[in-house]
Specification:
Non-ribosomal Peptide Synthetase Peptidyl Carrier Protein, Chain A, 84 residues, mainly alpha
C-alpha cells in the first residue's frame, strides 16, 4: 500500500512541476490536456522526469496511452511488475 501512495505522490509532484500546477492533486481520471495552459512540451518534460526518477523507459505505445494520471500510474505499475 505504501508503494502505491509513494508512486501516486511522485506522479503528482512531477506533474505539478511539469505542468506548472502547484495545487494539482492525484485524480485517476484527470486528463493532462485539460489542464489550464497545457502544451506538448510540458507533457514531454513530465515523461522525461518520470523516466529519470524511476529509471525506466517508456515505449511510444506507453506514452500514447498515458493520457490521465490513472493511466500513468497503471503504465508504471505494469512496467514494474513485468521487470521483476
Amino acid at each position: 500500500m505504501q508503494m502505491v501512495t509513494d508512486l501516486k505522490n511522485l506522479i503528482t509532484d512531477l506533474a505539478q512541476v511539469a505542468f506548472s500546477q502547484p495545487n494539482l492533486e492525484f485524480e485517476a481520471g484527470l486528463a493532462f490536456h485539460t489542464l489550464r495552459g497545457f502544451d506538448s512540451a510540458q507533457a514531454v518534460q513530465f515523461i522525461l522526469a518520470l523516466e529519470d526518477k524511476l529509471n525506466i523507459s517508456f515505449s511510444e505505445e506507453d506514452i500514447d496511452n498515458m493520457l490521465t494520471m490513472g493511466s500513468v500510474f497503471e503504465t508504471i505499475s505494469t512496467k514494474r511488475a513485468n521487470s521483476c
